[in-house]
Amino acid sequence: MLDYLIIGQGIAGSLLSYELLKNNHNNILVIDKENPKASSMVGTGICNPIVGKYLKKTWMVDDFFSQLVETYQDLEKILATNFLRKIPIYHKYNDIEEQNRIMGFSANAEWQDYINTSPDNTQYQLFVESKLGGWESKNSFQVNGSRFLLAWRKYLIEKQKYKSLNFNENKLVFHQQYIEYKHIKAKKVIFCRGFEDATSNFFKSLPFSLVKGEWLKIKIKDVPQLESIIIQSCFLLPLENQEYIVGSTYHWDNLTEDISINAKEELVEKLERFLKVPYQIIEQKVGIRPATHTRKPFLGKHFTHQNLFIFNGLGTKGFSLAPFFAKQMAKYLISDDINAIQNEARVKYKTKI
Ligand SMILES: Cc1cc2nc3c(=O)[nH]c(=O)nc-3n(C[C@H](O)[C@H](O)[C@H](O)COP(=O)(O)OP(=O)(O)OC[C@H]3O[C@@H](n4cnc5c(N)ncnc54)[C@H](O)[C@@H]3O)c2cc1C
After folding, report:
1. CATH number at residue 231
2. Same domain? 237 vs 275
3. Both 228 and 183 in a single domain?
4. pLDDT in tens, 305-342
5. Bridge partners, residue 207, by sequence
6. Does the beta carbon of 300 lie inside 6 Å of ligand 1?
7. Number of helices and strands (H, E) in the chain?
8. Ligand 1 contact via 193 beta carbon (within 6 Å)
9. What angle do CA 78, 81, 84 make, to 5 degrees?
10. Is the beta carbon of 49 within 6 A of some atom in ligand 1?
C-alpha cells in the first residue's frame, strides 16, 4: 500500500512529490493524464516580487522568493537541468510624476533589493520609445515550467513513482484507513489537478474563480535579443533565437481550452501600443489558471473523507507560491498538524457529497 497518491503533476503535484521524497517519504506515486494545455505547461513562469503601477510588494514576498530560489536551484542540481533564470523586469516611465514617485521609493532602504533606477536604457530604447528612461525590478525570476515538469517526470519514472493515467474520481473507494483506486491502495490521496478540481464532486464548493489565459509567441529579427522582460500594457518575455512571449490575457468567461481570435487581437493591440519594431506571430497558447476568489491557495483535507486532500488554488502566481506551499503541504501530510499550514491558505469550505 502507498503512503501517498498524488493526482496531477503540475507545479503543485511535482513540488509536493519533491518535498515528500526530500523528507524520506518514498512510498509515493504521482499520476497524470499529461494535458499539454495544463497551466504549468503553458504558464510563462514569471516570478515578479513587485505588482501594480503604484508599487506593492507581492504578498509574503520575502518568504516566497527565498523559498523559490532554494527549491528550484536544488531541483536544477538533482535534475542536471537549467530552468530558473534571474531576469530583470523593465518599466518605462510614462511621465515625470511616475519617475519622481519611483525615485522616491528607491531612496527607501526597504525597496533597495527590488528597484534599480539606473538601468542601461539603451537596449530597451531599441524596442520602446522612452524619453524619460525607466526602471527595473530586481530579484525577479522566470521558471521554464515545461522544461522542469518534463525533467521531473523523467526522474519520477526512473524511480518508478509515476504513471500516465486519466484518473476518474468516481472510481475511488473509501475505506477506514485507506482509499482504493482501481488496483492502487493509498493511505492518503492528494488532488493537485489544477482547474479540473473546480468541478470535482469532492471539492467543487471551494471558491475557485478560474481564469483563462492566452499568449502569443513572436519573432523580432531586426534588433539584438533582449536580456530582460519589458512590462507595459502587456509583457514581452525574451526566449531564445529572437523569439519572445507576449502575454497574457485574463478572462473569467468562456473557460474552454481553445485559443481565441479575441485574445490574439487583444494582445496585438496592447503590444503595438509600445513596441516600435516589426514582428511576426508564430504561435498562440492557452491554459486555465486555478485561481480563487480569495486569491489565496487551498491546502487541506476533505471534511468527510479524512484521507482525501487538496493542494490547489495557485492562481496567477503558481510558480512563486508553489515552492513555499508545497513545503507546508508536505509537513502537514507527514505530521497531520494543521498548524503546518498558515491560516490564510487552509481550506475553508462547506463541501457536501
Ligand atoms: C497563460 C498563463 C500564464 C501564466 N503565467 C504565469 C506566470 O508568469 N507566473 C506564475 O507564477 N504563474 C503563471 N501562471 C499560473 C500558473 O501556471 C499556475 O498557477 C500553476 O501552473 C498551477 O499549477 P497546478 O499544478 O495547480 O495546476 P496544473 O498546472 O493545471 O496541473 C494539473 C495537472 O493535473 C493533471 N490532471 C488534471 N486532471 C487529471 C485527471 N483527471 N487525471 C490525471 N491527471 C489530471 C493535468 O494533466 C496537469 O498536469 C500562468 C497560467 C497561464 C494559463
Report:
1. 3.30.9.10
2. yes
3. no
4. 999 999 999 999 999 999 999 999 999 999 999 999 99
5. none
6. no
7. 8, 21
8. yes
9. 100
10. no
